[in-house]
Structure to design on (182 residues):
C-alpha cells in the first residue's frame, strides 16, 4: 500500500524548499521564462499586476504596453518592439487609448501567426456586449477587474496559478513558418 498523498499545504512547503517561488519552472519546460504581455494604461493596475505576478510560482517576465497600437506593434515585433519576445500569455484591458482592447482582440485572434497566444481580458467592463464580443473573438478568459486592491491581487494570483501553473501553454512559434522557438 502506498503512502497517502501529501496535503496541499505540505506540497507547497516542499516546493518552496526545493525552488524559490519565482524560480519554479513552467510545466513542460524546465528552462523557459514565461513571457507575459500586459496591455494596460492604468499605472496603479500595472504595478499591482507586476507585484502579484512576481509573487507567483513560475518565473516570468512581464512586458507592459499602454495602448492598443503599441500592443499590436509588440505582438508583430514592429516599431520600437522589433526584438520583442513572443508572449506566452496576454493580459488585455479593453478600455485603452489609441486602439481599444476590443480591436486588439479582433486583430490578434484574426492573425494566423498570433491567434494561438492565450488572451485573458482583465477589465472593469461588466457590459454583456463586451463579454459576448470577447468570447466571439475566442478570448480564453474574461475577468472583471475588482475595485478593491486586495481582490485585484487575489485575481492576478489566480491568473498566475491557473495560466502559468496548471495550463500547458502553446509552444512559441517562430515567425513566419510556424516552427517552435526557444
Amino acid at each position: 500500500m502506498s503512502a497517502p498523498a501529501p496535503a496541499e499545504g505540505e506540497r507547497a512547503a516542499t516546493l518552496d524548499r526545493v525552488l524559490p517561488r519565482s524560480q519554479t519552472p513552467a510545466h513542460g519546460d524546465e528552462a523557459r521564462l514565461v513571457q507575459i504581455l500586459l496591455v494596460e494604461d492604468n499605472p496603479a493596475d500595472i504595478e499591482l499586476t507586476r507585484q502579484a505576478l512576481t509573487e507567483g510560482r513560475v518565473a516570468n517576465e512581464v512586458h507592459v504596453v499602454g495602448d492598443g497600437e503599441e500592443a499590436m506593434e509588440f505582438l508583430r515585433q514592429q516599431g520600437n518592439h522589433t526584438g520583442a519576445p513572443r508572449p506566452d500569455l496576454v493580459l488585455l484591458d479593453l478600455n485603452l487609448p489609441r486602439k481599444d482592447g476590443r480591436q486588439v482582440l479582433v486583430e490578434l485572434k484574426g492573425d494566423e501567426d498570433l491567434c494561438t497566444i492565450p488572451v485573458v481580458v482583465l477589465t472593469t467592463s461588466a457590459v454583456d456586449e463586451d463579454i459576448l464580443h470577447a468570447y466571439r473573438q475566442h478570448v480564453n478568459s474574461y475577468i472583471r477587474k475588482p475595485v478593491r486592491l486586495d481582490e485585484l491581487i487575489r485575481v492576478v494570483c489566480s491568473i498566475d496559478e491557473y495560466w502559468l501553473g496548471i495550463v500547458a501553454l502553446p509552444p512559441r512559434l517562430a515567425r513566419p513558418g510556424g516552427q517552435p522557438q526557444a
In short: The beta strands are 34-39, 60-65, 89-92, 119-123, 141-144.
